[in-house]
Amino acid sequence: MTRFAPDPVPGQAPPADSVHPREATKDAPTSVARFNETIRAFVSGWGSVWVEGEITSWNVRGGNVYGRLKDLTADASVGFRIWSSTVQRLPDDLKIGDRVIASVKSDYFVKTGDFTVLVAAMRHTGLGDQLERLERLRAALRAEGLFSPERKKPLPFLPHVIGLITGERSDAEKDVHRNAELRWPHVEFRTVHAAVQGDRCVPETIAALKTLDEDPDVDVIIIARGGGDPQHLLGFSDERLLRAVAAASTPVVSAIGHENDHPLLDDVADLRASTPTDAAKRVVPDVSEQRALVRQLRSRLGSRLAMRVSHDIAQLEQLRSRPVLRTPESTVERRSHEVELLAARGRDTLERRLARASRETAELRASLRALSPGATLARGYAIAHLSGGLIIRDAAQAPDGTDVVVTVGRGSFGARSAGEVSEATSGDASEPA
Predict the structure, then answer these.
(1) Tell me, what's the pLDDT at 1?
(2) Where is the Exonuclease VII large subunit C-terminal domain (predicted)?
(3) Which among 190, 246, 253, 288 has most CB atoms closer than 10 A?
(4) How far apart are CA 239 and CA 241, in angstroms?
């Protein structure tokens, strides 16, 4: 809607909002609104421009972002706005401290006289290509297994000597020493100073790592640096340093920057600490906590030992209360009576068996005597046999004049056969001769 200024009254100054700022005088000043509209019309003609700076403020309200960009070298800044529709097209990791380039269009609020810029696009600068290269390197190292938990070495419970790589006279060095000594007063450090940014960072850090890794007294190595611009932390994502850390035989702790910083060294190291202070707390145990743990373990051990002794005493009393242990002589006496009974029974059994065997032996002896040739001879019979020992059973075996031996009940004597024996007596004799 076009506004028309009223015709001026003769002798009076024209209204302020009808005077163009270029024509304004002290007698005919322009209005603030006309002045602001003129400025807005002027800056609106600039169009879109690309600017570079550092984000120093980032506030989200209603989906829109309100912030400020600070010049990287001079003391100058400008406010900016990003509508919610534009925010959705921007990188998700934009934050305070980021170095960015942005496509902006100037805007001037007539009502408040505030100058700001509208952001149409924004991205990281300086680190953009480097971040892309780092992501490719991260993927390659992960594929090689350098980030695998299986290859990470465990830290010693209480290191005797801690190797520290950090900048000379840096706050990181002071933080590590102070917090480690507070936790364990007798901890010992071997510190090798190295550049923590710039071109000398990587070679000096690798050399320091080699020196400490070859030291047999060093149990763990901490690489520490305070926070800073991400550009200054790029050395701790260098592939040469990462491979040197992976090849080290001593456990390595990465303590680079702050919690939000995440160089590739954090993924390759055996332990990632969020800050140098955190590294000291993770590497060295707290002496007060360990003493409390020892007291707790001693108390638990004493309780367990007392319970075990009480249990064993109760079992011993239970065993002692049994009759066999309370009056052991009664068991011996009972067993002795049993032994005496068994011995008497054994003697009776043995005597009966011996008596029966004696009777059987006497009967057998009598039978043998009755059947033996000696008993027959004792009844008056005799045995005649030739000198060769052949028993004469037939008279024809001893013709007239044959020398024979005659055995009787008591001894033997020689004889000679003479004449013929009558037929009546040549047979078997039933009576002794």
Answers:
(1) 37
(2) 146-364
(3) 253
(4) 5
Domain segments of the chain: what residues?
Answer: 31-125, 131-285, 376-421
Q: Are 223 and 193 in contact (CB under 8 A)?
A: no
Query: In the chain, count of helices (H) and strands (E)?
Result: 13, 13
φ/ψ of residue 430, rounded to 5: -95, -15
Rg (CA), the chain: 64
Percent of the chain surpassing pLDDT 70: 89
Digit-coded pLDDT (tens) for 213-254: 999 999 999 999 987 767 678 889 999 999 999 999 999 999
Please check whether the two domains, 31-125 and 131-285, share a CATH topology: no
Please write the tens of the pLDDT for every residue from 173-199. 999 999 999 999 989 999 999 999 888
Residues 6+ apart with CB under 8 A from 385: 391, 392, 404, 405, 407
Which residues have CB under 8 Å from 125's CB, separation 6+? 52, 99, 100, 101
The alpha carbon dihedral of 352, 358, 364, 367 has a sign of negative
Q: Are 255 and 222 in contact (CB under 8 A)?
A: yes
pTM of structure: 0.47
Q: Bridge-partner residues for 225, per DSSP?
A: 256
Taking CA 418 as the corner, what is the angle to CA 415 and CA 424, rounded to the nearest 5 degrees?
110
Residues 6+ apart with CB under 8 A from 46: 105, 106
Residue 16, CA distances (Å) to 22, 320, 409 in order: 12, 119, 190
Helix axes 171-183, 276-283, angle to 10 degrees: 30
Architecture per CATH, domain 31-125, reads as Beta Barrel (2.40)
Tell me the torsion sign for CA atoms 171, 172, 174, 178. Answer: positive
